[in-house]
């Protein structure tokens, strides 16, 4: 009887042991292939950036990865391309870039409000498809960047980048921009590491003036300051471009791991992300999903 119970226990343990073994193997695979991620300092290695990736492994693991331009124009042809790819690919899970901003009841209003990120969530909601965020936890990303930059500089980077985005893409005037950033500062107060610095618009005004004389006001921060392929010495960002490089590379690794893991689990993975993230992650994804 004892031997029989022992045999049953061993049989029950086998699936758990195999599952644990598979998990360890996946961790090692992702770590090994992550070495193929392309850093921004070596962007010149990307000779012909690929517009999209449709990766199918020998074991039928599947990932469709669409690099989009940041747009809130419903007439932009890329939205038709995204929807056509979505219908053809038939995903079981979709990943989106950026925060989970509200979506509207219609296609066009969603695009106007939340761009390509919102459009992916609109399609997933419409079709009842599982959806997940591509981004790492804000605290983890901020702590990684603070290995090199001060909490004040990191907070300024995030706040000024959002102000630039709202000005350029949403066309918000000064009064609305100040109100939106005041709300952002309130939300960001919960982020460990940077939450306790620059907690009000007055503190933002003062911090901005410590680093920049031009443009005169923080809400005028140019979008060039947030180009990860540019140097702050050339744009006038002082440190913003270099922080964006660190942020983007940290996010690239996280995105790659999240997408590869989901595909390795047998899911049909659909993701839309901005600009150059896809070609910089592509060698690592091909390595993990071959």
Could you explain the architecture of this structure?
This protein is an alpha/beta fold and 290 residues long. Among the domains are: 50-136 and 269-289, no CATH class; 150-238, no CATH class. Helix content is 56%, strand content 9%. It has helices at 2-34, 77-89, 107-127, 138-145, 151-169, 174-188, 201-211, 232-235, 240-264, 277-289, and strands at residues 53-56, 62-68, 93-96, 130-133, 268-274. A hairpin with a 5-residue loop joins strand 1 (53-56) and strand 2 (62-68). Helix 5 (151-169) packs antiparallel against helix 6. The radius of gyration is 22 Å and the shape is globular. The protein starts with a helix and ends with a helix. The mean pLDDT is 91.
Which helices and strands occur, and which strands form pairs?
Blueprint: H1 2-34, E1 53-56, E2 62-68, H2 77-89, E3 93-96, H3 107-127, E4 130-133, H4 138-145, H5 151-169, H6 174-188, H7 201-211, H8 232-235, H9 240-264, E5 268-274, H10 277-289
Parallel strand pairs: 2-5, 3-4, 3-5
Antiparallel strand pairs: 1-2
